[in-house]
Amino acid sequence: MKKMPLLLLILVLSGCSSIKKQIELNKLKEVKYKVELKSPKIPIGDAEAQVTTAFMGLKKVALKVSYSPAEDALCLEYKRNTVTYYQFFPKASRVLFLEAVDKYSQDYSDKKLVSSKTSKKQYGSKEGYLIWKLAKVSQSYSDNIDFYFGYMFKEKSPFFTITQGEAYSENLFADKNERNARTSGEIQLYFTRTQSMELAVYFEQQFLQSLTAAPEPGKTDSNVTYEAY
Fold first, then answer.
1. I need a surface site. Which of 1, 153, 213, 215 has the fewest CB within 10 A?
2. 222, 123 Cβ separation under 8 angstroms
3. 29-56 tens-digit pLDDT
4. Structural domain of 168
5. Distance separating alpha carbons of residues 84 and 184, to the nearest angstrom
6. What's the predicted TM-score (pTM) here?
7. In a domain, 10, yes or no
């Protein structure tokens, strides 16, 4: 009879330990990559892509490229119809993007690109962050999404693609009338081979690190002409 309380105590302590571990695991799962739209950004340059039209053709769209040092995020900003999108790529997704562009370029040269329903995911996917905003509404929406890298054919031409996965903002304070605005469907950005290679320069880690690196003591700017005195 005396052993029962001790056994129960052991079971209770064991149960508490398991619950504590489960809570810790759940907390780790809840930690997701996030970028604040108001975070300081370093403008990098411009790029060009294509998006589909209402008639499933392609039209050019301008991309504004910037870098958020605090979150180590590369941002591609573009406007489609009345919505402005901000795609944020953390380091892991940038590495995969560069690998994808290399594979696409090689497959392009080797004539290995074949039209299929799965080609838009040919080179893998990584998680990123998306913020979208209606042109006439100050409220912005955001969600963690997957970026898929691959290619798609348009008019018999294989374009490199970044597929922006579906997103839904869980903003509890958003008006119920904004339900449609809180949802972002899947979108592809189409790049010619040249456009993809030009964009890849901005994804290079060494290039991004150089944007925030302090100049070496005594080092002069090579673009400045210094006259002897």
1. 1
2. no
3. 456 889 999 999 999 999 999 999 888 7
4. 42-209
5. 11
6. 0.78
7. no
Taking the CA atoms of the chain, what radius of gyration do you get in angstroms? 24
Task: Yes or no: say if 53 and 61 are a contact pair by the CB < 8 Å rule.
Answer: no
Look up residue 199 and give its two tokens: 């964009």
Looking at the structure of the chain, the number of domains it has is 1
Q: Are 39 and 71 in contact (CB under 8 A)?
A: yes
Tokens, residue 7: 């056994």
Residue 19 lies in a domain: no
Is the distance from CB of 92 to CB of 106 less than 8 angstroms?
A: no
**Euclidean distance between CA atoms 118 and 207, whole angstroms:** 32
- CA distance linking residue 173 with residue 144, whole number of Å: 18
Identity of the amino acid at 120 = K
* Residue 35 falls inside a structural domain: no
Burial class of residue 183 in the structure, from the number of CB atoms within 10 Å of its CB (0-12 exposed, 13-18 middle, 19+ buried): middle
**Residue 136 carries which side chain, given as an amino acid letter?**
K
Angle formed by the axes of helices 205-212 and 91-109, to 10°?
140
Residue 131 lies in a domain: yes
Angstrom distance (rounded) from CA 165 to CA 146: 5
Task: Kindly report, residue by residue over 99-152, the tens digit of the pLDDT.
Answer: 999 999 999 999 999 999 999 999 999 999 999 998 766 688 999 999 999 999
C-alpha 94/C-alpha 209 separation (Å) is: 13
